[in-house]
Write a structure and sequence with these properties.
- The chain has 478 residues and is an alpha+beta fold.
- The protein is 27% helix and 23% strand.
- The chain contains ten helices and 20 strands.
- The protein has a six-stranded antiparallel β-sheet with strand order 2-1-11-10-7-8, with no helix packed on it. The chain has a six-stranded antiparallel β-sheet with strand order 12-13-14-15-18-17.
- The longest helix is centred in the C-terminal third of the chain and has 33 residues.
Length: 478
Amino acid sequence: MLVIEYNTGTMPVLRVRKGKNEGEAYAVFSRKDPTVLGRGEDTEVCLDDNRCSRKHAHIMPASGNWLIQDLGSSNGTLLNGEKVDQGRLQDQATIQIGNSLLVFEEKENLPPPRREIYGARLLETEREEGGVFVYHAYQAALDRAVRVDLFAGGQAPTGELLDQVQDAVKSAARLKQDHINAIVSSEFSDTNKSYLVLKSHGGPSLGDGLAEILSEPLAARLDLVRQLLLITLARQEIPGICLPMNLTQFQVQAESGAGRILSAAALELPTLLGFLDGSLRHLPAYTNYLPPELSEDGESGSVQREKTLAYSIAAISYHLLTGAPAMGQGETREILEKHRELKPAPANLIDSNIPEDVSDLLGRMLEKNPAERPSDPEEIDPVISNFEPSAEVVEIQGDYQPEIELADRPQVSVTQPPLARSDQEPKPAISRARVESPLPARSSMLKNLVSLPFWAALWAALFYGSSKVAELLFTGAQ
Protein backbone atom coordinates (compact mmCIF):
# COMPACT_ATOMS: atom_id res chain seq x y z
CA MET A 1 0.00 0.00 0.00
CA LEU A 2 1.33 3.40 -0.98
CA VAL A 3 1.49 6.02 1.77
CA ILE A 4 1.93 9.69 0.91
CA GLU A 5 3.26 12.06 3.58
CA TYR A 6 2.37 15.73 3.49
CA ASN A 7 4.53 18.40 5.12
CA THR A 8 1.67 20.81 5.73
CA GLY A 9 3.35 22.48 8.70
CA THR A 10 6.39 23.80 6.83
CA MET A 11 7.05 26.28 4.05
CA PRO A 12 10.07 27.83 2.32
CA VAL A 13 11.63 30.71 4.25
CA LEU A 14 14.30 33.30 3.50
CA ARG A 15 16.26 34.02 6.68
CA VAL A 16 18.58 37.04 6.79
CA ARG A 17 22.01 36.06 8.16
CA LYS A 18 23.87 39.31 7.47
CA GLY A 19 22.76 42.91 6.96
CA LYS A 20 20.49 45.46 8.64
CA ASN A 21 17.60 42.94 8.60
CA GLU A 22 19.68 40.23 10.28
CA GLY A 23 17.53 37.69 12.17
CA GLU A 24 14.35 38.37 10.23
CA ALA A 25 12.54 35.60 8.31
CA TYR A 26 10.30 35.99 5.26
CA ALA A 27 7.92 33.45 3.81
CA VAL A 28 8.37 32.40 0.19
CA PHE A 29 4.83 32.21 -1.14
CA SER A 30 3.79 29.19 -3.20
CA ARG A 31 1.55 30.99 -5.64
CA LYS A 32 1.44 32.02 -9.29
CA ASP A 33 2.87 35.50 -8.64
CA PRO A 34 6.53 35.36 -7.58
CA THR A 35 7.89 36.47 -4.22
CA VAL A 36 9.80 39.70 -4.89
CA LEU A 37 12.96 40.73 -3.02
CA GLY A 38 14.04 44.36 -3.02
CA ARG A 39 14.24 47.72 -1.31
CA GLY A 40 10.76 48.86 -2.32
CA GLU A 41 8.02 48.90 0.29
CA ASP A 42 5.70 47.00 -2.03
CA THR A 43 7.98 43.94 -2.17
CA GLU A 44 7.32 40.76 -0.19
CA VAL A 45 10.89 40.66 1.13
CA CYS A 46 11.69 44.31 1.89
CA LEU A 47 15.38 44.80 2.72
CA ASP A 48 16.89 47.91 4.31
CA ASP A 49 19.89 47.95 1.99
CA ASN A 50 21.07 50.90 -0.17
CA ARG A 51 22.90 48.54 -2.56
CA CYS A 52 19.69 46.64 -3.21
CA SER A 53 17.46 47.67 -6.13
CA ARG A 54 13.82 48.54 -5.54
CA LYS A 55 12.83 45.25 -7.21
CA HIS A 56 16.03 43.28 -7.16
CA ALA A 57 15.08 39.60 -7.73
CA HIS A 58 12.15 37.25 -7.35
CA ILE A 59 11.57 33.62 -6.36
CA MET A 60 8.87 31.46 -7.91
CA PRO A 61 7.84 27.79 -8.08
CA ALA A 62 8.36 25.93 -11.35
CA SER A 63 7.58 22.23 -11.91
CA GLY A 64 8.09 21.34 -8.28
CA ASN A 65 11.30 23.36 -7.92
CA TRP A 66 12.12 26.85 -6.66
CA LEU A 67 13.86 29.32 -8.99
CA ILE A 68 15.45 32.70 -8.27
CA GLN A 69 15.73 35.25 -11.08
CA ASP A 70 17.53 38.58 -11.13
CA LEU A 71 15.29 41.46 -12.26
CA GLY A 72 17.98 43.53 -13.94
CA SER A 73 19.38 44.85 -10.66
CA SER A 74 22.26 47.32 -10.52
CA ASN A 75 24.59 45.18 -8.40
CA GLY A 76 23.46 41.68 -9.44
CA THR A 77 22.40 38.59 -7.48
CA LEU A 78 24.79 35.97 -6.11
CA LEU A 79 23.59 32.38 -5.64
CA ASN A 80 26.00 30.33 -3.50
CA GLY A 81 28.68 32.93 -4.21
CA GLU A 82 28.23 32.98 -8.00
CA LYS A 83 26.50 35.72 -9.99
CA VAL A 84 23.42 34.38 -11.78
CA ASP A 85 20.58 35.66 -13.91
CA GLN A 86 18.51 32.63 -12.94
CA GLY A 87 19.22 29.60 -10.78
CA ARG A 88 17.60 26.72 -8.96
CA LEU A 89 17.29 27.05 -5.20
CA GLN A 90 18.04 24.13 -2.93
CA ASP A 91 17.76 23.87 0.84
CA GLN A 92 20.37 26.04 2.66
CA ALA A 93 21.33 27.88 -0.55
CA THR A 94 22.76 31.37 0.08
CA ILE A 95 21.60 34.51 -1.74
CA GLN A 96 23.68 37.70 -1.71
CA ILE A 97 21.77 40.90 -2.52
CA GLY A 98 23.74 44.09 -1.90
CA ASN A 99 25.09 43.93 1.62
CA SER A 100 22.45 41.40 2.71
CA LEU A 101 23.08 37.66 2.92
CA LEU A 102 20.02 35.40 3.01
CA VAL A 103 19.66 31.64 3.43
CA PHE A 104 16.91 29.70 1.66
CA GLU A 105 15.37 27.14 4.02
CA GLU A 106 13.05 24.95 1.98
CA LYS A 107 11.14 23.37 4.86
CA GLU A 108 11.26 25.66 7.83
CA ASN A 109 8.59 26.38 10.39
CA LEU A 110 7.73 30.06 10.25
CA PRO A 111 6.48 31.13 13.68
CA PRO A 112 3.11 32.89 13.75
CA PRO A 113 2.71 36.44 15.02
CA ARG A 114 2.71 36.48 18.82
CA ARG A 115 -0.66 38.12 19.21
CA GLU A 116 -4.37 37.53 19.38
CA ILE A 117 -6.69 38.23 16.48
CA TYR A 118 -10.33 38.88 17.30
CA GLY A 119 -10.12 36.92 20.52
CA ALA A 120 -8.21 34.01 18.97
CA ARG A 121 -4.63 33.36 20.06
CA LEU A 122 -2.47 32.08 17.20
CA LEU A 123 -0.60 28.92 18.23
CA GLU A 124 1.21 27.51 15.22
CA THR A 125 1.32 27.71 11.46
CA GLU A 126 -0.47 24.82 9.78
CA ARG A 127 0.60 25.79 6.27
CA GLU A 128 0.96 28.61 3.77
CA GLU A 129 -0.52 28.60 0.31
CA GLY A 130 -0.93 31.42 -2.18
CA GLY A 131 0.11 34.15 0.24
CA VAL A 132 -2.39 33.00 2.89
CA PHE A 133 -1.32 31.59 6.25
CA VAL A 134 -3.50 28.98 7.94
CA TYR A 135 -3.02 28.98 11.70
CA HIS A 136 -4.10 26.72 14.52
CA ALA A 137 -5.52 29.02 17.19
CA TYR A 138 -7.43 28.99 20.44
CA GLN A 139 -10.46 31.08 21.30
CA ALA A 140 -10.54 31.54 25.06
CA ALA A 141 -14.04 33.06 25.24
CA LEU A 142 -15.58 29.96 23.64
CA ASP A 143 -12.98 27.54 25.07
CA ARG A 144 -12.34 25.79 21.78
CA ALA A 145 -9.74 25.31 19.09
CA VAL A 146 -10.29 27.32 15.92
CA ARG A 147 -8.56 27.86 12.61
CA VAL A 148 -7.56 31.24 11.27
CA ASP A 149 -6.95 32.02 7.60
CA LEU A 150 -4.96 35.22 7.28
CA PHE A 151 -3.29 37.07 4.43
CA ALA A 152 0.31 37.92 5.09
CA GLY A 153 1.09 41.61 5.46
CA GLY A 154 0.72 43.37 2.13
CA GLN A 155 -0.64 40.26 0.40
CA ALA A 156 -4.36 40.98 0.54
CA PRO A 157 -6.05 41.29 -2.89
CA THR A 158 -7.35 44.60 -4.15
CA GLY A 159 -9.95 45.87 -6.58
CA GLU A 160 -12.33 43.37 -8.20
CA LEU A 161 -10.58 40.36 -6.67
CA LEU A 162 -11.05 41.79 -3.18
CA ASP A 163 -14.76 42.37 -3.87
CA GLN A 164 -15.13 38.73 -4.95
CA VAL A 165 -13.39 37.49 -1.81
CA GLN A 166 -15.58 39.65 0.44
CA ASP A 167 -18.77 38.49 -1.30
CA ALA A 168 -17.74 34.85 -0.84
CA VAL A 169 -17.04 35.39 2.86
CA LYS A 170 -20.45 36.99 3.37
CA SER A 171 -22.13 34.07 1.60
CA ALA A 172 -20.20 31.50 3.61
CA ALA A 173 -21.00 33.23 6.90
CA ARG A 174 -24.70 32.52 6.33
CA LEU A 175 -24.23 28.79 5.79
CA LYS A 176 -25.93 26.24 7.99
CA GLN A 177 -24.92 22.83 6.67
CA ASP A 178 -24.41 19.61 8.63
CA HIS A 179 -21.23 18.75 6.76
CA ILE A 180 -19.73 22.21 6.42
CA ASN A 181 -18.10 24.37 9.08
CA ALA A 182 -19.51 27.87 9.00
CA ILE A 183 -17.41 30.95 9.55
CA VAL A 184 -17.36 32.28 13.10
CA SER A 185 -16.43 35.81 12.10
CA SER A 186 -14.73 37.68 9.31
CA GLU A 187 -13.16 41.11 9.20
CA PHE A 188 -11.12 43.15 6.78
CA SER A 189 -8.62 45.69 8.05
CA ASP A 190 -7.31 48.44 5.78
CA THR A 191 -4.56 49.11 8.33
CA ASN A 192 -2.55 45.92 7.95
CA LYS A 193 -4.14 44.59 4.76
CA SER A 194 -5.04 41.28 6.36
CA TYR A 195 -8.22 39.36 5.71
CA LEU A 196 -9.34 37.01 8.44
CA VAL A 197 -11.56 33.95 8.33
CA LEU A 198 -12.03 32.42 11.76
CA LYS A 199 -13.53 28.93 11.71
CA SER A 200 -14.61 26.42 14.32
CA HIS A 201 -13.39 22.85 14.81
CA GLY A 202 -9.70 23.53 14.46
CA GLY A 203 -7.70 20.33 14.47
CA PRO A 204 -6.16 17.63 12.28
CA SER A 205 -6.99 17.55 8.60
CA LEU A 206 -7.63 14.51 6.43
CA GLY A 207 -4.12 14.93 5.05
CA ASP A 208 -2.60 14.84 8.55
CA GLY A 209 -4.14 11.44 9.27
CA LEU A 210 -3.85 9.96 5.78
CA ALA A 211 -1.23 7.31 6.61
CA GLU A 212 -3.31 5.96 9.50
CA ILE A 213 -6.53 6.03 7.48
CA LEU A 214 -4.99 4.10 4.58
CA SER A 215 -4.03 1.33 7.02
CA GLU A 216 -7.63 0.86 8.19
CA PRO A 217 -10.09 -1.75 6.83
CA LEU A 218 -11.90 -0.98 3.60
CA ALA A 219 -15.23 -0.58 5.41
CA ALA A 220 -13.89 2.40 7.42
CA ARG A 221 -12.56 4.07 4.27
CA LEU A 222 -15.81 3.44 2.43
CA ASP A 223 -17.62 5.31 5.20
CA LEU A 224 -15.35 8.31 4.63
CA VAL A 225 -16.15 8.14 0.91
CA ARG A 226 -19.86 8.11 1.75
CA GLN A 227 -19.36 11.30 3.76
CA LEU A 228 -17.39 12.88 0.91
CA LEU A 229 -20.26 12.19 -1.48
CA LEU A 230 -22.72 13.70 1.00
CA ILE A 231 -20.55 16.81 1.20
CA THR A 232 -20.58 16.97 -2.60
CA LEU A 233 -24.37 17.10 -2.54
CA ALA A 234 -24.47 19.57 0.33
CA ARG A 235 -22.38 22.04 -1.63
CA GLN A 236 -24.85 21.91 -4.51
CA GLU A 237 -26.92 24.31 -2.41
CA ILE A 238 -24.10 26.87 -2.21
CA PRO A 239 -22.87 27.27 -5.80
CA GLY A 240 -21.28 30.63 -5.04
CA ILE A 241 -18.37 29.00 -3.23
CA CYS A 242 -18.30 25.47 -4.63
CA LEU A 243 -14.60 25.00 -5.17
CA PRO A 244 -12.16 22.13 -5.87
CA MET A 245 -11.15 20.28 -2.73
CA ASN A 246 -7.99 18.71 -1.34
CA LEU A 247 -7.05 16.74 1.77
CA THR A 248 -6.25 19.84 3.82
CA GLN A 249 -9.81 21.20 3.49
CA PHE A 250 -11.39 18.33 5.42
CA GLN A 251 -11.19 18.17 9.18
CA VAL A 252 -11.50 14.79 10.90
CA GLN A 253 -13.14 14.18 14.25
CA ALA A 254 -12.92 10.76 15.88
CA GLU A 255 -16.07 9.72 17.72
CA SER A 256 -16.29 6.69 19.98
CA GLY A 257 -18.17 3.90 18.27
CA ALA A 258 -18.88 6.04 15.21
CA GLY A 259 -15.56 6.00 13.37
CA ARG A 260 -14.37 9.27 11.87
CA ILE A 261 -16.61 12.20 11.11
CA LEU A 262 -15.59 14.48 8.24
CA SER A 263 -16.46 18.14 7.92
CA ALA A 264 -15.49 20.49 5.11
CA ALA A 265 -14.43 24.10 5.49
CA ALA A 266 -17.17 26.47 4.43
CA LEU A 267 -14.52 28.73 2.97
CA GLU A 268 -10.78 28.44 2.72
CA LEU A 269 -8.94 31.55 1.59
CA PRO A 270 -6.03 29.78 -0.18
CA THR A 271 -8.53 27.78 -2.24
CA LEU A 272 -10.78 30.73 -2.97
CA LEU A 273 -7.95 33.02 -4.01
CA GLY A 274 -6.27 30.32 -6.10
CA PHE A 275 -9.55 29.56 -7.83
CA LEU A 276 -10.29 33.20 -8.60
CA ASP A 277 -6.85 34.13 -9.93
CA GLY A 278 -6.12 30.80 -11.65
CA SER A 279 -3.14 29.82 -9.49
CA LEU A 280 -4.47 26.51 -8.12
CA ARG A 281 -2.19 24.50 -10.37
CA HIS A 282 0.81 26.09 -8.63
CA LEU A 283 -0.27 24.91 -5.18
CA PRO A 284 1.17 21.46 -4.31
CA ALA A 285 -1.82 20.44 -2.19
CA TYR A 286 -4.04 20.39 -5.30
CA THR A 287 -1.78 18.52 -7.70
CA ASN A 288 -3.39 15.10 -7.17
CA TYR A 289 -7.00 16.37 -7.09
CA LEU A 290 -7.16 19.16 -9.66
CA PRO A 291 -9.71 18.84 -12.51
CA PRO A 292 -8.24 19.03 -16.02
CA GLU A 293 -10.04 22.30 -16.79
CA LEU A 294 -8.10 23.98 -13.94
CA SER A 295 -4.73 22.35 -14.59
CA GLU A 296 -3.59 24.95 -17.13
CA ASP A 297 -3.99 28.66 -17.78
CA GLY A 298 -7.58 29.66 -18.35
CA GLU A 299 -10.52 31.60 -16.98
CA SER A 300 -11.51 29.82 -13.77
CA GLY A 301 -14.76 31.69 -13.40
CA SER A 302 -16.22 30.12 -16.55
CA VAL A 303 -16.06 26.52 -15.29
CA GLN A 304 -19.01 24.61 -13.84
CA ARG A 305 -18.15 24.65 -10.19
CA GLU A 306 -20.25 21.63 -9.19
CA LYS A 307 -18.42 19.62 -11.88
CA THR A 308 -14.97 20.67 -10.68
CA LEU A 309 -16.02 19.78 -7.16
CA ALA A 310 -17.22 16.33 -8.31
CA TYR A 311 -13.83 15.64 -9.92
CA SER A 312 -11.75 16.58 -6.87
CA ILE A 313 -14.05 14.67 -4.47
CA ALA A 314 -13.77 11.58 -6.70
CA ALA A 315 -9.96 11.92 -6.85
CA ILE A 316 -9.77 12.12 -3.03
CA SER A 317 -12.13 9.12 -2.70
CA TYR A 318 -10.05 7.13 -5.19
CA HIS A 319 -6.93 7.87 -3.12
CA LEU A 320 -8.61 6.75 0.12
CA LEU A 321 -9.90 3.48 -1.37
CA THR A 322 -6.93 2.39 -3.47
CA GLY A 323 -4.11 3.84 -1.36
CA ALA A 324 -2.63 5.81 -4.27
CA PRO A 325 -3.48 9.04 -6.13
CA ALA A 326 -5.56 8.55 -9.26
CA MET A 327 -2.77 9.88 -11.48
CA GLY A 328 0.11 8.15 -9.68
CA GLN A 329 3.44 9.71 -8.81
CA GLY A 330 5.62 12.17 -10.69
CA GLU A 331 6.61 15.80 -11.06
CA THR A 332 3.91 18.44 -10.79
CA ARG A 333 3.85 19.12 -14.53
CA GLU A 334 3.62 15.40 -15.30
CA ILE A 335 0.69 14.88 -12.91
CA LEU A 336 -1.20 17.86 -14.36
CA GLU A 337 -0.71 16.48 -17.87
CA LYS A 338 -2.14 13.15 -16.73
CA HIS A 339 -5.21 14.93 -15.36
CA ARG A 340 -5.77 16.36 -18.84
CA GLU A 341 -5.06 13.21 -20.83
CA LEU A 342 -5.10 10.01 -18.74
CA LYS A 343 -8.10 8.07 -17.45
CA PRO A 344 -7.25 6.20 -14.24
CA ALA A 345 -7.78 2.46 -13.87
CA PRO A 346 -11.11 1.47 -12.26
CA ALA A 347 -10.75 1.46 -8.48
CA ASN A 348 -12.07 -2.11 -8.16
CA LEU A 349 -9.41 -3.29 -10.61
CA ILE A 350 -6.79 -2.23 -8.04
CA ASP A 351 -8.78 -3.65 -5.11
CA SER A 352 -11.47 -6.17 -6.09
CA ASN A 353 -13.23 -5.65 -2.72
CA ILE A 354 -14.27 -2.11 -3.67
CA PRO A 355 -17.98 -2.24 -4.60
CA GLU A 356 -18.59 -2.08 -8.33
CA ASP A 357 -21.17 0.70 -8.12
CA VAL A 358 -18.75 2.87 -6.10
CA SER A 359 -15.92 2.21 -8.56
CA ASP A 360 -18.20 3.01 -11.50
CA LEU A 361 -19.41 6.27 -9.94
CA LEU A 362 -15.87 7.46 -9.18
CA GLY A 363 -14.80 6.61 -12.73
CA ARG A 364 -17.61 8.72 -14.19
CA MET A 365 -16.88 11.60 -11.80
CA LEU A 366 -13.28 11.57 -13.08
CA GLU A 367 -14.30 12.08 -16.71
CA LYS A 368 -12.29 14.71 -18.59
CA ASN A 369 -15.41 16.34 -20.00
CA PRO A 370 -17.15 18.15 -17.10
CA ALA A 371 -20.58 17.63 -18.69
CA GLU A 372 -20.20 13.85 -18.32
CA ARG A 373 -19.51 13.94 -14.56
CA PRO A 374 -22.35 12.95 -12.21
CA SER A 375 -23.02 15.68 -9.67
CA ASP A 376 -26.79 15.59 -9.11
CA PRO A 377 -28.59 13.80 -6.25
CA GLU A 378 -30.41 11.56 -8.76
CA GLU A 379 -27.05 10.12 -9.83
CA ILE A 380 -25.26 9.99 -6.47
CA ASP A 381 -28.06 9.19 -3.99
CA PRO A 382 -28.57 5.58 -5.18
CA VAL A 383 -24.92 4.77 -4.50
CA ILE A 384 -24.95 6.52 -1.11
CA SER A 385 -28.06 4.54 -0.10
CA ASN A 386 -26.09 1.32 -0.52
CA PHE A 387 -23.42 2.46 1.95
CA GLU A 388 -25.74 2.74 4.92
CA PRO A 389 -27.59 -0.24 6.45
CA SER A 390 -31.28 -0.12 5.55
CA ALA A 391 -33.88 0.15 8.31
CA GLU A 392 -35.37 -3.05 6.85
CA VAL A 393 -32.20 -5.16 7.19
CA VAL A 394 -33.13 -8.82 7.62
CA GLU A 395 -31.37 -10.37 10.59
CA ILE A 396 -31.10 -14.16 10.31
CA GLN A 397 -29.46 -15.91 13.24
CA GLY A 398 -26.89 -18.62 12.60
CA ASP A 399 -23.54 -19.17 10.98
CA TYR A 400 -22.81 -19.09 7.30
CA GLN A 401 -22.95 -22.59 5.75
CA PRO A 402 -20.72 -22.87 2.68
CA GLU A 403 -22.32 -26.12 1.51
CA ILE A 404 -25.71 -24.48 0.77
CA GLU A 405 -26.67 -24.93 -2.83
CA LEU A 406 -26.69 -21.66 -4.76
CA ALA A 407 -30.24 -22.23 -5.97
CA ASP A 408 -31.55 -22.76 -2.43
CA ARG A 409 -30.02 -19.82 -0.58
CA PRO A 410 -31.09 -16.18 -0.69
CA GLN A 411 -29.45 -14.05 -3.37
CA VAL A 412 -27.02 -11.71 -1.61
CA SER A 413 -24.08 -9.54 -2.62
CA VAL A 414 -21.01 -9.67 -0.41
CA THR A 415 -19.01 -6.64 -1.54
CA GLN A 416 -21.24 -5.15 -4.21
CA PRO A 417 -24.73 -4.21 -3.05
CA PRO A 418 -27.22 -4.14 -5.95
CA LEU A 419 -27.42 -0.70 -7.55
CA ALA A 420 -30.74 0.85 -6.58
CA ARG A 421 -32.62 2.79 -9.20
CA SER A 422 -33.80 6.25 -8.24
CA ASP A 423 -37.44 5.29 -8.84
CA GLN A 424 -37.39 2.24 -6.58
CA GLU A 425 -37.09 1.67 -2.86
CA PRO A 426 -33.80 -0.04 -1.93
CA LYS A 427 -34.17 -3.77 -1.29
CA PRO A 428 -33.53 -5.10 2.24
CA ALA A 429 -29.92 -6.12 2.68
CA ILE A 430 -28.87 -9.48 4.10
CA SER A 431 -25.45 -9.91 5.59
CA ARG A 432 -23.76 -13.01 4.19
CA ALA A 433 -22.16 -13.83 7.51
CA ARG A 434 -25.61 -14.16 9.12
CA VAL A 435 -27.24 -16.44 6.52
CA GLU A 436 -28.04 -19.98 7.72
CA SER A 437 -29.30 -23.08 5.94
CA PRO A 438 -32.89 -22.69 4.74
CA LEU A 439 -35.50 -24.37 6.93
CA PRO A 440 -37.15 -27.60 5.59
CA ALA A 441 -40.13 -26.87 3.39
CA ARG A 442 -43.47 -27.07 5.18
CA SER A 443 -46.05 -29.68 3.98
CA SER A 444 -48.90 -28.35 1.95
CA MET A 445 -52.50 -28.41 3.30
CA LEU A 446 -53.59 -30.97 0.66
CA LYS A 447 -50.83 -33.33 1.72
CA ASN A 448 -51.94 -33.02 5.35
CA LEU A 449 -55.54 -33.85 4.44
CA VAL A 450 -54.50 -36.97 2.48
CA SER A 451 -52.57 -38.35 5.46
CA LEU A 452 -55.38 -37.68 8.01
CA PRO A 453 -57.26 -41.08 7.63
CA PHE A 454 -54.08 -43.03 8.27
CA TRP A 455 -53.42 -41.22 11.53
CA ALA A 456 -57.10 -41.62 12.60
CA ALA A 457 -57.03 -45.41 12.00
CA LEU A 458 -53.76 -45.75 13.91
CA TRP A 459 -55.12 -43.91 16.94
CA ALA A 460 -58.35 -45.98 16.85
CA ALA A 461 -56.42 -49.28 16.75
CA LEU A 462 -54.25 -48.20 19.65
CA PHE A 463 -57.33 -47.23 21.68
CA TYR A 464 -59.17 -50.51 20.90
CA GLY A 465 -56.09 -52.62 21.72
CA SER A 466 -55.45 -50.93 25.01
CA SER A 467 -59.09 -51.38 26.12
CA LYS A 468 -58.96 -55.16 25.39
CA VAL A 469 -55.73 -55.57 27.34
CA ALA A 470 -57.26 -53.76 30.30
CA GLU A 471 -60.39 -56.02 30.15
CA LEU A 472 -58.29 -59.23 30.18
CA LEU A 473 -56.19 -58.04 33.10
CA PHE A 474 -59.28 -57.09 35.11
CA THR A 475 -61.01 -60.49 34.41
CA GLY A 476 -57.86 -62.42 35.39
CA ALA A 477 -57.66 -60.56 38.69
CA GLN A 478 -61.17 -61.73 39.64
